[in-house]
Each structure stands twice: as structure tokens, then as C-alpha cells.
Amino acid sequence: MTFAEIIRLHRERLGLNKKQLAEKVGVTQPYIVQIENDGKIPGDGVVLRLADALGLDRRELLFAAYRARASDDTRHYFHSIFDDLEPTEEFAQPFIETRKDHFESPDFSLQHLSTASNGVYQVALLTAKNDGAEFSGHTHGVPQIYIAIDGEYEATIGDRKVRLGGPDGELTAVIPARTQHSLKAIRKGRCMTVTLGQVVRSAETRARAR
After folding, report:
1. Is pLDDT at 51 greater than 90 in this prediction?
2. What is the pLDDT of residues 106-141, one digit of tens each?
3. How far apart are CA 161 and CA 168, in angstroms?
4. Where are the alpha helices (DSSP H) in the chain?
5. Domains annotated on the chain, with CATH
6. Fewer CB within 10 A of the terminal residue: the chain, N end or C end?
7. Are 172 and 148 in contact (CB under 8 A)?
């Protein structure tokens, strides 16, 4: 279901016309028309007010908005710059590129910091915006290391769990190649990801990263 269909369906279920919904959200009626008829995706503030007006879960509607904003080009670039996300992964974070090499989702921001010229390592900064944020399960074809900077996390690596950060947690966690893993922020903060091994990036992607 598209973002526009979600808004229209729940507006009609509540018996609201476009003008009434616009008044509840604090926007103009033409703005609601643009959302429902033209596929306009509003900013986060309006999305949250729409969720409240329609009785929807704020986080779920934010995710729907981010998925709608994430074009095929952005998804392709994200997967190529962050090397080798497996085609069979369950990666569901809807990231959009907000500026060069910087991606945002409702729960996380992810910034590509550097890739070695020979592709033997890649470094990125992952920031959890909210307590309880979950980075969905996925795999890489090469090993990866999580390094806690601040905040607290629980990494699920295969069938084991590793506590990262905080007074009792580990500083680092190593994820073997082709191992399903996910990350939950117990307390929001930042961690570094270091991808080891040959990082494959297309000529077009390398040119964009310069």
C-alpha cells in the first residue's frame, strides 16, 4: 500500500473529508490533495501530525514515508556504497540519502566515512536516534566489526547475543562473513562499523564518492 493509499484509507474510515483532515493536521486542503492524488510525501513533522490525526502508529507511518521517499536509485547507491548487502537479506530500514554519503531512516543515521583506495576496508558511523531502535537483520559477504562509541547496544550475531557499550558491555563485536546479524539500541548513541576484506564498488559509485 502506498503512502497516499494509507492516508486516504484511514481518512475515509474516520469519515473525514480532505478539508477536515487538513484542519486537524494544520495544513491546507490542497496540501492533502497533493498527498492523496499526486503522491507528495510530506516532511517528518506533518507525517507525525497525520499519524495523530488518523490514530496511526507514528513510527509505522514514518517508516512508510521514508520507504516512499527512498527511490530505486537511492536504494541501489546505498547497497553499492555499503558494499555487499546480500540479495537474500531481510534488510528493512528505509534509508534515504540526505547529503553526500549520508543516509537517514526514522531510527538511524548512517554516514560513510571512508573506503580504502584498494578496497580492503570501509568505515561508517551508525547513529541510533532513539532508545530501542532496531537495525534489521542482514548479512555481508565479508567480516565486519562494530565498535561502540557511546550508548548501549545488543548485537545478535547468528544465534548469540553480545552486549556493547555501557559499564558492563564489550567495546567491540566481530561479525563473521555471511552471518545474519542485527543491532538494537538499548540506549541511543553512536557506533563505528568497520568492514574488512575486499569492498566491491562500481566505477560510478567510486566517482560519486570522490
Report:
1. yes
2. 888 888 888 777 767 788 899 999 999 988 788 877
3. 14
4. 3-13, 18-25, 29-38, 44-54, 58-69, 72-81, 203-209
5. 3-69 (1.10.260.40), 72-209 (2.60.120.10)
6. C
7. yes
